[in-house]
Amino acid sequence: MFWSSVSKSLLAVCVFTEFAVIFVESLSCENSMCTNGLCQPMGTCNTSKSCFSQTQEFKMPELSTSLSVQQKGCSLDECTGLAFSATLGDQRTFRYDQRCCTTDKCNQVDTKPSQVPAKANGVQCLACYMEAGRVCIPTPLKCTGSETKCVAVIGTAVGSSSPLSVVMVGSGCATESACNLNMTVLDFVNIRTFCSSGFPVLPTPSSAPDGLGLRSASISTVPVLISLLLLKVLV
Length: 235
Hints:
- This protein is α+β, with helices and mostly antiparallel strands.
- The chain has two domains: 27-114, CD59 (Ribbon), CATH 2.10.60.10; 120-201 and 216-234, Ribbon (CD59), CATH 2.10.60.10.
- The chain contains three helices and twelve strands, in the order H-E-E-E-E-E-E-E-E-E-E-E-E-H-H.
- Strands 1, 2, 3, 4, 5, 6, 7, 8, 9, 10, 11 and 12 form a twelve-stranded antiparallel beta sheet that branches.
- The longest helix is centred in the first third of the chain and has 24 residues, at 2-25.
- Pfam families: UPAR_LY6.
- It comes from Mus musculus (Mouse).
- Residues 1-26 form the signal peptide.
- This is UPAR/Ly6 domain-containing protein.
Protein backbone atom coordinates (compact mmCIF):
# COMPACT_ATOMS: atom_id res chain seq x y z
CA MET A 1 0.00 0.00 0.00
CA PHE A 2 2.84 2.35 0.93
CA TRP A 3 4.79 1.83 -2.31
CA SER A 4 1.58 2.12 -4.30
CA SER A 5 0.89 5.54 -2.76
CA VAL A 6 4.46 6.66 -3.36
CA SER A 7 4.30 5.56 -7.01
CA LYS A 8 1.05 7.44 -7.55
CA SER A 9 2.50 10.56 -5.93
CA LEU A 10 5.63 10.42 -8.08
CA LEU A 11 3.52 9.92 -11.20
CA ALA A 12 1.40 12.93 -10.28
CA VAL A 13 4.52 15.05 -9.73
CA CYS A 14 5.99 13.99 -13.09
CA VAL A 15 2.78 14.76 -14.94
CA PHE A 16 2.46 18.14 -13.24
CA THR A 17 6.09 19.00 -14.00
CA GLU A 18 5.69 18.01 -17.64
CA PHE A 19 2.62 20.18 -18.04
CA ALA A 20 4.41 23.06 -16.28
CA VAL A 21 7.38 22.81 -18.65
CA ILE A 22 5.08 22.67 -21.68
CA PHE A 23 3.19 25.71 -20.40
CA VAL A 24 6.37 27.77 -19.87
CA GLU A 25 7.91 26.78 -23.20
CA SER A 26 4.71 27.59 -25.07
CA LEU A 27 4.81 31.30 -24.18
CA SER A 28 4.18 33.16 -27.43
CA CYS A 29 5.31 36.75 -28.06
CA GLU A 30 4.81 39.26 -30.83
CA ASN A 31 7.97 39.62 -32.92
CA SER A 32 8.54 42.83 -34.88
CA MET A 33 10.95 45.67 -35.64
CA CYS A 34 9.92 49.24 -36.49
CA THR A 35 12.10 52.19 -37.50
CA ASN A 36 10.46 55.60 -37.76
CA GLY A 37 7.07 53.93 -38.14
CA LEU A 38 8.15 51.52 -40.89
CA CYS A 39 7.59 48.05 -39.47
CA GLN A 40 8.78 44.58 -40.37
CA PRO A 41 6.33 42.12 -38.78
CA MET A 42 7.94 38.74 -38.17
CA GLY A 43 4.94 36.90 -36.76
CA THR A 44 5.43 35.42 -33.33
CA CYS A 45 8.20 33.69 -31.41
CA ASN A 46 8.22 31.24 -28.52
CA THR A 47 10.21 31.47 -25.32
CA SER A 48 10.57 29.93 -21.88
CA LYS A 49 11.58 33.29 -20.38
CA SER A 50 9.45 36.34 -21.18
CA CYS A 51 8.28 38.75 -23.86
CA PHE A 52 9.71 42.24 -24.20
CA SER A 53 8.70 45.51 -25.79
CA GLN A 54 11.39 48.14 -26.31
CA THR A 55 11.16 51.73 -27.58
CA GLN A 56 14.06 54.10 -28.21
CA GLU A 57 13.79 57.68 -29.43
CA PHE A 58 16.60 60.09 -30.31
CA LYS A 59 15.56 63.65 -31.13
CA MET A 60 17.81 66.15 -32.89
CA PRO A 61 16.54 69.73 -33.25
CA GLU A 62 18.00 70.19 -36.74
CA LEU A 63 15.95 67.27 -38.09
CA SER A 64 12.20 67.49 -38.64
CA THR A 65 11.75 63.88 -37.49
CA SER A 66 13.38 61.93 -34.68
CA LEU A 67 15.02 58.53 -34.91
CA SER A 68 12.58 56.09 -33.36
CA VAL A 69 13.17 52.36 -33.01
CA GLN A 70 10.64 49.93 -31.56
CA GLN A 71 11.33 46.23 -31.13
CA LYS A 72 9.22 43.39 -29.76
CA GLY A 73 10.19 39.79 -29.28
CA CYS A 74 11.25 36.94 -27.02
CA SER A 75 13.86 37.34 -24.31
CA LEU A 76 16.73 34.90 -24.65
CA ASP A 77 17.83 35.60 -21.07
CA GLU A 78 16.13 37.10 -18.06
CA CYS A 79 14.43 40.30 -19.16
CA THR A 80 15.02 43.45 -17.12
CA GLY A 81 12.71 46.43 -17.37
CA LEU A 82 14.46 49.77 -17.77
CA ALA A 83 13.31 53.31 -18.51
CA PHE A 84 15.51 56.40 -18.65
CA SER A 85 15.91 59.72 -20.42
CA ALA A 86 18.68 62.26 -21.02
CA THR A 87 18.88 65.78 -22.42
CA LEU A 88 22.33 66.57 -23.80
CA GLY A 89 23.94 69.56 -25.48
CA ASP A 90 22.24 71.13 -28.53
CA GLN A 91 18.94 70.01 -26.99
CA ARG A 92 19.46 66.44 -28.13
CA THR A 93 17.21 64.10 -26.17
CA PHE A 94 17.22 60.34 -25.81
CA ARG A 95 14.40 58.24 -24.36
CA TYR A 96 14.59 54.50 -23.64
CA ASP A 97 11.84 52.22 -22.35
CA GLN A 98 12.00 48.42 -22.11
CA ARG A 99 9.16 46.43 -20.53
CA CYS A 100 8.95 42.73 -19.77
CA CYS A 101 5.91 40.48 -19.32
CA THR A 102 5.20 36.78 -18.90
CA THR A 103 1.78 36.06 -20.39
CA ASP A 104 0.88 34.92 -23.88
CA LYS A 105 1.35 37.75 -26.45
CA CYS A 106 1.52 40.28 -23.64
CA ASN A 107 3.81 42.59 -25.65
CA GLN A 108 1.28 43.47 -28.33
CA VAL A 109 0.50 46.91 -26.90
CA ASP A 110 2.81 49.65 -28.18
CA THR A 111 4.83 51.52 -25.58
CA LYS A 112 6.05 55.11 -25.76
CA PRO A 113 8.86 56.59 -23.66
CA SER A 114 7.49 59.04 -21.13
CA GLN A 115 8.18 62.70 -21.88
CA VAL A 116 10.13 64.84 -19.43
CA PRO A 117 8.00 67.65 -17.93
CA ALA A 118 9.14 71.15 -18.90
CA LYS A 119 9.22 72.43 -15.31
CA ALA A 120 12.72 73.12 -13.98
CA ASN A 121 13.73 71.02 -10.96
CA GLY A 122 16.53 73.21 -9.60
CA VAL A 123 19.43 71.08 -10.89
CA GLN A 124 21.85 72.59 -13.39
CA CYS A 125 24.45 70.71 -15.44
CA LEU A 126 27.02 71.42 -18.14
CA ALA A 127 25.62 70.37 -21.52
CA CYS A 128 27.67 69.37 -24.54
CA TYR A 129 27.36 67.10 -27.56
CA MET A 130 30.18 66.06 -29.91
CA GLU A 131 30.47 63.75 -32.87
CA ALA A 132 33.47 63.08 -35.10
CA GLY A 133 34.64 66.32 -36.71
CA ARG A 134 32.60 68.51 -34.35
CA VAL A 135 33.58 70.55 -31.32
CA CYS A 136 31.28 71.85 -28.60
CA ILE A 137 31.66 74.32 -25.78
CA PRO A 138 29.91 73.16 -22.57
CA THR A 139 27.08 75.48 -21.57
CA PRO A 140 24.84 75.52 -18.46
CA LEU A 141 21.59 73.57 -18.83
CA LYS A 142 18.66 73.75 -16.41
CA CYS A 143 17.31 70.25 -15.83
CA THR A 144 13.59 69.53 -15.87
CA GLY A 145 11.20 66.91 -14.55
CA SER A 146 12.78 63.72 -13.24
CA GLU A 147 16.16 64.42 -14.87
CA THR A 148 17.92 65.23 -11.61
CA LYS A 149 21.44 63.95 -12.38
CA CYS A 150 24.32 65.41 -14.38
CA VAL A 151 25.46 62.79 -16.86
CA ALA A 152 28.36 62.24 -19.23
CA VAL A 153 27.92 59.74 -22.07
CA ILE A 154 30.59 58.07 -24.19
CA GLY A 155 29.36 56.21 -27.26
CA THR A 156 31.51 53.71 -29.15
CA ALA A 157 30.85 51.59 -32.22
CA VAL A 158 29.40 48.21 -31.29
CA GLY A 159 31.95 45.42 -31.47
CA SER A 160 35.03 47.64 -31.30
CA SER A 161 37.31 48.24 -28.32
CA SER A 162 39.58 50.78 -30.01
CA PRO A 163 39.60 54.36 -28.65
CA LEU A 164 39.17 55.48 -32.25
CA SER A 165 35.77 53.79 -32.28
CA VAL A 166 34.26 56.64 -30.23
CA VAL A 167 31.32 58.01 -32.22
CA MET A 168 29.92 60.55 -29.75
CA VAL A 169 30.49 62.20 -26.40
CA GLY A 170 27.79 64.12 -24.59
CA SER A 171 26.88 65.61 -21.25
CA GLY A 172 23.74 67.10 -19.75
CA CYS A 173 20.79 66.13 -17.56
CA ALA A 174 19.43 62.61 -17.02
CA THR A 175 17.19 60.50 -14.84
CA GLU A 176 18.88 58.53 -12.06
CA SER A 177 18.12 55.31 -13.96
CA ALA A 178 20.48 56.53 -16.73
CA CYS A 179 23.51 56.41 -14.42
CA ASN A 180 26.34 53.85 -14.64
CA LEU A 181 25.04 52.10 -17.76
CA ASN A 182 27.08 50.00 -20.17
CA MET A 183 24.72 48.88 -22.91
CA THR A 184 23.89 48.97 -26.61
CA VAL A 185 21.35 51.45 -27.93
CA LEU A 186 19.89 51.90 -31.42
CA ASP A 187 21.62 48.61 -32.36
CA PHE A 188 24.92 50.26 -33.35
CA VAL A 189 26.20 52.33 -30.40
CA ASN A 190 27.48 51.05 -27.07
CA ILE A 191 27.14 53.71 -24.38
CA ARG A 192 28.80 54.13 -21.01
CA THR A 193 27.36 56.71 -18.64
CA PHE A 194 28.75 58.50 -15.60
CA CYS A 195 26.68 60.66 -13.23
CA SER A 196 27.12 63.34 -10.60
CA SER A 197 24.56 64.97 -8.35
CA GLY A 198 24.86 68.62 -9.34
CA PHE A 199 26.58 71.33 -11.29
CA PRO A 200 30.21 70.29 -11.93
CA VAL A 201 32.82 72.54 -10.31
CA LEU A 202 36.51 73.03 -11.02
CA PRO A 203 39.19 72.48 -8.36
CA THR A 204 39.65 75.45 -6.05
CA PRO A 205 42.96 76.82 -4.72
CA SER A 206 41.99 75.52 -1.28
CA SER A 207 41.90 71.92 -2.53
CA ALA A 208 44.48 69.82 -0.73
CA PRO A 209 47.38 68.74 -2.98
CA ASP A 210 47.99 65.03 -3.41
CA GLY A 211 51.28 63.20 -3.17
CA LEU A 212 52.28 64.22 -6.70
CA GLY A 213 51.67 67.90 -6.10
CA LEU A 214 48.44 67.88 -8.09
CA ARG A 215 45.26 69.38 -6.68
CA SER A 216 42.37 66.96 -6.31
CA ALA A 217 39.25 67.71 -8.33
CA SER A 218 35.71 67.35 -7.11
CA ILE A 219 34.19 63.97 -7.96
CA SER A 220 31.46 65.79 -9.87
CA THR A 221 34.05 67.05 -12.39
CA VAL A 222 34.99 63.52 -13.47
CA PRO A 223 32.24 63.01 -16.09
CA VAL A 224 32.94 66.37 -17.75
CA LEU A 225 36.69 65.80 -17.71
CA ILE A 226 36.21 62.42 -19.39
CA SER A 227 34.24 64.12 -22.15
CA LEU A 228 36.80 66.87 -22.67
CA LEU A 229 39.75 64.48 -22.70
CA LEU A 230 38.13 62.59 -25.58
CA LEU A 231 37.90 65.75 -27.67
CA LYS A 232 41.16 64.97 -29.49
CA VAL A 233 39.82 61.59 -30.51
CA LEU A 234 36.71 63.11 -32.02
CA VAL A 235 38.37 65.91 -34.00
